[in-house]
Amino acid sequence: MRIVMFARVPAWYSFRQDRLARRLLADGHEIAAIVAENAGTFATMREWLHKLGPRVVLRKAAKRLLGRASAGAREGSGHSATAYPRCEAPVHRVASHNSDACLAILRGLRPEVLVLRGCGLIRAPVLQVPTLGTINPHYALLPAYRGMEVTEWSVLHGDPCAVNVHWVLEAVDAGGVIAGRLVEVERGDSLGKLREKCAALAAELLADALRRIEVEGIRPSPVPSTQGRQYFVMHPRLYQLAETRLKSA
Amino acid sequence: MESRKLPWGTLARAGAHLLHPSVAALLARDALGLGSRVRSSQEHLEAALRWICRAHDECGGRGVSAGFSLLRGWFPPYPETTGYIIPTFFHYAALTGEPQYRQRAVRMADWEIEVRLPSGAVMGGVFRGAGHESVPVVFNTGQVILGWTRAYAETREERYLAAARRAGDWLVQQQSPDGAWRLPGAETRTLVHAYDARTAWSLLEVHALTGEAAYLEAARRNLDWTVAQQLDNGWFRENAFFTESKGSLPLTHTIAYVMEGLLEAWRLVGEERYLAACRRTAEKLLRIFELRRYMAGEFDDTWQSTASFSCLTGNAQIAGVWLRLFELTRDTRFLSAALKLNDFVKATQQVRSLHPAIRGGIKGSQPIWGRYTPYTYVNWGAKFFADSLMLEGRVMAKFEAAVLSGERLGPGDAPDSALARTPAPR
Q: In this predicted complex, what is the ipTM?
């Protein structure tokens, strides 16, 4: 399938070893391009440190520097991580994914599926461009946990952690789920490690979702907006509590 | 033509206040948009209470000064807000075991009896002395009733209940047939107010102590009228202080007043419509705050705001309402948002300032020159901030225990229909 990926990364970020891109290429999909919204280096580093923790960030950086495939790609796909092709797709840099410039680029690329890989809310004109639809990995059970920092909210509540790939509609996390799986929480896991596990699983589930779209002909479906709650950024004190709960589980 | 005299005395006082290095630092901080370090809730709470004590001492330990103006210094005591500071002091005394707060609360309640009007009502504005003209005001009367009923509950001294009853009778007499109160006030240009829901709450407190149906009926009439003022989006009509274009919009302070009144009314009479109305507004404000990452000081009927200030009193009150709703619904979004909004207020409180009138005080607006009570630290800001922090302490202690015990706290745990009424945060 002809795919365009949306990402929000600093200008220096390279997609050549991007776990998700390589995973999709390994499945024979065509990544027409990656459209990257520019994010500030300082803000990105702060976000990564907040979400993953310094240990996971350092480990990932070291792996990148050593040129090895990331750990998550190993998970039960039948593919050898090191055998994944490098991603050489062209990267377009835009100020905003909802800008006219981005819309023009996207229309020129004529994607069948738009894959979101960590970006903000995408508006209707952009969502209307891909012929089959837009999909997004979400790191919690849907529709119970919509919105932001949902892995942390799930942990805080003592609910199972999961990754779902769902259709993207204009309302937040309101599209039907295409593929989903629970994340195994192990003794000693931190929130950062859990997020890393989610990211690894998301690559697999996105590949699975694309296969289902291609083979089974699944198409976008909405979920009633009354289901679940939309969560927002968690207060640091609750974040600490979630971390404590996870470690003591 | 009459020549206008310059208020040299006022200007000289203002100049003297503004020359203090702490004031200069404060103005620079607000101009640059810098917040202070957020410390523990306990430290902020103690600072706020100490500031109110200073405001109390400035007025001879009777009524509490309305606040401290950077331009005019300390204000005279304010009967309305002294009235609702009384429960805060009783609460803090119980929390800390420090008797001085209870003694102060009793002195405030006695002072309120001394300065009430012959009708039993409470005057509008600050108390400048017995000889000055004073106008009875509905809302102010209700707020002082809240102080008297609490003083009675704590001391069992009949004089407080008698004062509350007499003030309650005056309120019942003044009420319009539709349930609203329409009396011109000294501090507002608007005639009718949705935020009188707090006045209705005060009548329910009198009813709870006396069992007299007239108070309950009057309160219900007003609360039903209040609910009818709510738009589908949660915004309340008839909820501003002024009618002029600037100031004709409801402040978060008055919006929160309505929510507080409805929430307490629900606690006392169990009418679900009051809770639903409160929750509708609270959820709207939560969404606005989380998505905009800022709480503007006032909103129009579409919840848009052009205000360049945040109303700190309103913020503290909203945080308090969210904390109560978290207790009722176990919806952790309310808890998270309340902690964030309290943090916002904490970052505006100078707990280590060298200026004794600034240290621990809460400004009317952030920045201090914002439209709501500019250049002034207001006693009601400190009061609602203290209330919110005391509630936060209680709520977080219970929540932390629940999380660490491994209790499941996810959505669907406490369906709305199964909500149990809980006691008020005393």
A: 0.90
